[in-house]
Amino acid sequence: MPTRPPHYRCLADDIEQKFRSDEYLPGQQLPSVSEIGELYNVARSTAYRAVKELHERNLIYGQQGQGVFVADS
User: Fold this and answer.
1) 25, 29, 54, 65: least CB-packed within 10 angstroms?
2) CB burial class (10 A; 0-12, 13-18, 19+) of residue 13?
3) Inside any domain, residue 1
């Protein structure tokens, strides 16, 4: 029986799909971790791990005091 990926990875995949469909454009600021948690009705820790996953995929970058932004493709 195949195992399901962790919830944070599914969330990261969903956000990545929004990049690919141009819902979020390069350079555009993403919602905060708290806002992502509220939008997806998940715990802040799950939203944080999803954002971390996107960063590890080099799909986003952070700017101190500014927020997190979509990286150029």
Assistant:
1) 65
2) middle
3) no
Residue ranges making up the domain that contains 46: 7-70
Q: Are 68 and 30 in contact (CB under 8 A)?
A: yes
Task: Tell me the β-bridge partners of 60.
Answer: 70
The domain total for the chain is 1
CATH number at residue 57: 1.10.10.10
Q: Are the C-beta atoms of 42 and 48 separated by less than 8 Å?
A: no
Position 2 in a domain: no
Interatomic CA distance for residues 69 and 3, integer angstroms: 31
- In terms of Cα–Cα distance, which of 57, 55, 43, 54 is closest to 7? 43
- 10-67 pLDDT, tens per residue? 999 999 999 999 999 999 999 999 999 999 999 999 999 999 999 999 999 999 999 9
